[in-house]
Amino acid sequence: MKNSKILVYDGSFNGFLTAIFVGFEEQLNVADIRKNGRTQNGLFSEIQTVFTQMDKAKRVWKGIQNKSNNAIKQLYFAYLSESEGIEFLLYKYIQGLFSSEAELLEAPSESYKIEHLAAMVAKEKNRIEASLNFEYTGDGIYFANLAPDHNILPLISKYFRSRYADNPWIIYDIKRKYGIYYNGKGVEMVTLDLKEMHSLNAINPNLSRGETMDYDKIRNDYFKRADITSLINRKLFKQPPAKRYRSYLQEKHAV
Q1: Which residues contact 150 (CB under 8 A, 6 or more apart)?
Q2: 17 and 119, same structural domain?
Q3: What region does 114 belong to: left with phi over 0, alpha with psi -120 to 50, or beta?
Q4: What pTM, to 2 d.p., does this model score?
Q5: pLDDT tens per residue across span 211-229
């Protein structure tokens, strides 16, 4: 029997699909699939690093799509839930999908979990699209920050680009430390340098002893008067953490 493998990928959706391809192609005994930086050696499992390859990711994507359009949407939404162990759960689901319908039906719990997670992500997506409020900043950009339970920025990009097509805006996920920026023509991923905000508000002499700062208010007040364009950091595009989100903005996976 082959030794079990823990596949480690770069954190991107395409990296995850590449890991699926490698697991199938090499007929590995996959014990788990984990993002880089979240890996601990298993007692009886070897670590294998998987490098993202778009051609392999596309082959897996098209293969799932040929099986079921509904499955591909459920899979993508469930992946964005960032639920603990979601990669291996999806791996088992895809494994069953490619094996046979009979095997897939024998694992109703996996299908139910994926449907449940996908529904949670869809619910949060719809809630944010209906309720997100923008603040008008000093440099003429509409800005909104949020900390969603799930990684929903890739899913709401299309909606807000259509609704606010005439104005530049930024929606920033303070939990995941990246945002989407619409410049009037297209959407790109950005990060913001927030060191200035934290340094300006690190010490507040007006606070009484035992009182804590309202960071949400500090953040909102800061963005109202800040030159947001000066905080946009595009250099991080060249670094691995930023790359994990770039393919999401294409939105082809969410359709």
Answers
A1: 80, 81, 82, 120, 121, 124
A2: yes
A3: alpha
A4: 0.78
A5: 444 555 555 565 555 566 6
Q: Final residue of a domain: which of 97, 123, 149?
A: 123
Q: Is 216 left (phi over 0), alpha (psi -120 to 50) or beta?
A: alpha
Torsional sign, CA 216, 217, 219, 224: positive
Q: What are phi and psi of 121, to 5 degrees?
A: -65, -45
HSE of 231, CA atoms in CB hemisphere, 13 A: 24
pLDDT the model gives residue 135: 85
Q: Token digits for 217?
A: 């208010």
Whole-number pLDDT of residue 20: 96
Contacts of 192 (CB under 8 A, 6+ apart): 172, 179, 228, 231, 232, 233
pLDDT tens digits, one per residue of 1-39: 578 899 999 999 999 999 999 999 999 999 999 998 765
